[in-house]
């Protein structure tokens, strides 16, 4: 059966809110029937309405409880109004609980929708050029109105006559007037203002049911006085306004969530103390100097403070027994001692706070699971010794950190990142048997991996670009799946690593590697990086690795790729800058190979690709000795070929590449003809600048024949 011309979605009471947040276009919102059953939301374009009546699918669904949202787009769509009216008459005879939503876009009048508006619970007006909202006057069923980027002078007064209106959103409607009239809506629960000229919200004091208030880019808003006393207000979101104070929120006893973003004049949280239900606070890009007022918020669970340069202390948090998550980023914080009494804390992120030098305050927080102190000035993590539940530590580029002392004995610790730190050893981790992931790359002082031998669960080790003298300790990590020892100069072979039977990903780039012969036993290997291994001339050892999907051998001394012939799962091959490589022999028959980068090689032929039926992308730019594309004809999935600055004399062999979309042959001086391209149906772009076929005097494209 053919699919219906609309989308049917079963939603719960939160679906509208979630989908709107993620921009997925769910227009139905939070709707429930009298018996609390969740409705189906049907979204349909007006031009598809005619198909609905005859569809078997539609006939089967008529008895369901539906919320139907119809989009009318432009003046031409007005012709579809009678069709919708007829459909509504049909289904009302079967089920009188169906509800209607209208999404009206790019029209100049609402009068043609008069009858439909009277039946609607939801009206969305987008990019409409209106002079009046009179058509909405007195609509008893109307619960939600959203006005977005509507032009022309119009008043919101007609909305006051809609007794059941619960939600109003006004965004970028610069001609809208009488916004204060909304204060007469006794059932109003949700209001959104974006880029409006409001000076205050005093009018909202007449909305006792208000639960959610959001204002965005209203620079002249200077007071929240109208919110004080609203006993049901649960959520406040204010962005890009000039507010200096939020003191009026002290009269909102039900407040649970507060978001303040880019309110440059806001320096304190005075007004929040005493709000016993406040659970979540986000303050970003404000002039916040203190969070002391949060001390009186016993229900607080989550705090996010970002880009508040004047905030130097977390005083005010100590003793908040329900606080679970704290994130402080790019602030002037000098210490985190204020967290000392937050015994429920589970997650802490203190990022880019250069003045934080210790973790004093964390010891004794027995529920703390995750700590992120990336790019801070921390010198010691000794205080983590008192955090027995710790599972994850991220100390990325804490350059002043010289020791992992404090981690030993943390039995639940699974992940440690100390990349770019000043640590000299990792011996302290020997007492952390649960560690699965360890990142210590770019630790210039780290010369030994002693301590790994006891990590029986270690699956991922990144220790590239360190000062390692030996990797013998790695051999004890039998569970290891991913290994990065890039820039380990003492590495000349992989002898010994073959006992790590579970390895899936190995990076040994920029090492002294001469041979990978012993990799023949790496049966689980999926990805290999041997880039910049100048002494490596052969891939002997890889043939027969049935799971190998990715090989990166850029800038290596490779002379041949024949040993890849048995790697039947290979998908990606990077052999760029392998100046000793003249042939791709060995690749033919690799039916999974999708991408080959052979940039700037000595290639004389690409015939080795002849059997690579899955190939999609080929880069052979700067291959000066390559004159022909023989071997590519018949590669039905090839979409992109980059052959700029090559020695190409002909592109005739592309004639069978029916999926080809893009070809770059700029600076191919010896190429004088595009013969072979004329019958390629998908070819969109051919770049010919400064090639032998360039007739455009500096143009970058040639129209496809």
TrEMBL record:
<keyword id="KW-0677">Repeat</keyword>
<dbReference type="InterPro" id="IPR006553">
    <property type="entry name" value="Leu-rich_rpt_Cys-con_subtyp"/>
</dbReference>
<dbReference type="InterPro" id="IPR032675">
    <property type="entry name" value="LRR_dom_sf"/>
</dbReference>
<protein>
    <submittedName>
        <fullName>Uncharacterized protein</fullName>
    </submittedName>
</protein>
<dbReference type="InterPro" id="IPR050836">
    <property type="entry name" value="SDS22/Internalin_LRR"/>
</dbReference>
<dbReference type="InterPro" id="IPR001611">
    <property type="entry name" value="Leu-rich_rpt"/>
</dbReference>
<keyword id="KW-0433">Leucine-rich repeat</keyword>
<feature type="region of interest" description="Disordered">
    <location>
        <begin position="1"/>
        <end position="39"/>
    </location>
</feature>
């Amino acid at each position: 059966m053919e699919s219906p011309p609309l989308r049917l979605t079963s939603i719960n009471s939160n679906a509208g809110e979630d989908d709107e947040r993620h921009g997925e276009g769910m227009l139905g919102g939070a709707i429930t029937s009298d018996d609390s059953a969740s409705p189906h939301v049907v979204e349909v374009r007006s031009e598809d309405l005619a198909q609905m009546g005859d569809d078997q699918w539609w006939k089967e669904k008529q008895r369901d409880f539906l919320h139907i949202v119809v989009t009318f787009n432009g003046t031409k769509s007005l012709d579809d109004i009678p069709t919708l009216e007829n459909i509504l008459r049909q289904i009302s005879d079967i089920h009188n609980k169906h509800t209607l939503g209208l999404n009206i876009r790019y029209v100049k009048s609402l009068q043609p929708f008069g009858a439909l508006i009277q039946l609607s619970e939801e009206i969305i007006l987008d990019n409409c050029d209106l002079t009046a909202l009179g058509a909405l006057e007195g609509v008893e069923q109307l619960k939600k109105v959203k006005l977005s980027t509507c032009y022309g002078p119009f008043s919101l007064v007609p909305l006051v006559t809609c007794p059941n209106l619960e939600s109003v959103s006004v965004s970028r409607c610069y001609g809208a007037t009488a916004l204060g009239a909304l204060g007469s809506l006794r059932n109003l629960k949700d209001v959104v203002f974006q880029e409006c000229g409001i000076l205050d919200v005093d009018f909202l004091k007449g909305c006792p049911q208000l639960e959610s208030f959001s204002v965005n880019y209203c620079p002249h808003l200077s007071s929240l006085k109208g919110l004080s006393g609203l006993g049901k207000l649960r959520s406040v979101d204010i962005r890009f306004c000039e507010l200096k104070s939020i003191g009026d929120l002290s009269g909102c006893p039900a407040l649970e969530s507060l978001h303040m973003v880019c309110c440059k004049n806001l320096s304190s949280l005075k007004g929040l103390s005493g709000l016993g239900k406040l659970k979540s606070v986000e303050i970003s890009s404000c002039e916040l100097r203190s969070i002391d007022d949060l001390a009186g918020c016993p229900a607080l669970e989550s705090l996010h403070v970002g880009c508040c340069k004047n905030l130097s202390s977390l005083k005010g948090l100590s003793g908040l027994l329900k606080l679970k998550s704290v994130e402080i980023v790019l602030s002037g914080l000098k210490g985190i001692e204020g967290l000392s009494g937050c015994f429920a804390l589970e997650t802490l992120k203190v990022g880019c706070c250069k003045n934080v030098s210790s973790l004093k305050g964390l010891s004794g927080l027995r529920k703390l699971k995750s700590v992120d102190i990336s790019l801070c000035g921390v010198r010691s993590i000794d205080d983590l010794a008192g955090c027995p539940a710790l599972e994850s530590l991220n100390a990325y580029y804490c350059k002043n950190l010289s020791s992992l002392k404090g981690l030993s004995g943390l039995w639940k610790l699974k992940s440690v990142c100390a990349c770019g730190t000043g640590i000299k050893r990792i011996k302290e981790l020997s007492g952390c048997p649960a560690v699965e992931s360890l990142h210590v790359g770019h630790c210039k002082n780290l010369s030994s991996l002693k301590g790994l031998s006891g990590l029986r669960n270690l699956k991922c080790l990144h220790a590239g670009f360190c000062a390692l003298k030996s990797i013998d300790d790695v051999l004890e990590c039998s569970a290891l799946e991913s290994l990065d020892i890039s820039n380990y100069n003492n590495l000349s072979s992989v002898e010994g690593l073959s006992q790590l039977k579970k390895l899936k990903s190995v990076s040994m780039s920029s090492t002294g590697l001469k041979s990978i012969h012993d990799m023949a036993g790496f049966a689980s290997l999926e990805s290999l990086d041997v880039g910049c291994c100048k002494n490596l001339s052969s891939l002997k050892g890889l043939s027969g690795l049935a799971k190998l999907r990715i090989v990166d051998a850029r800038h290596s001394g490779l002379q041949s790729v024949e040993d890849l012939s048995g790697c039947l799962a290979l998908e990606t091959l990077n052999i760029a800058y392998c100046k000793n490589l003249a042939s791709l022999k060995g690749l033919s028959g690799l039916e999974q190979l999708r991408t080959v980068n052979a940039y700037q090689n000595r290639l004389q032929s690409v015939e080795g690709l002849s059997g690579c039926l899955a190939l999609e992308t080929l880069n052979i730019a700067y291959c000066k000795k390559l004159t022909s594309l023989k071997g590519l004809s018949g590669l039905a999935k090839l979409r992109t070929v980059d052959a700029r600055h090559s020695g190409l004399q002909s592109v005739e062999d592309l004639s069978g590449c029916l999926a080809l979309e893009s070809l770059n042959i700029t600076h191919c001086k010896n190429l004088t003809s595009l013969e072979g391209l004329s019958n390629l149906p998908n070819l969109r772009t051919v770049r010919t600048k400064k090639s032998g076929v360039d007739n455009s005097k500096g143009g970058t494209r040639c129209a496809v024949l």
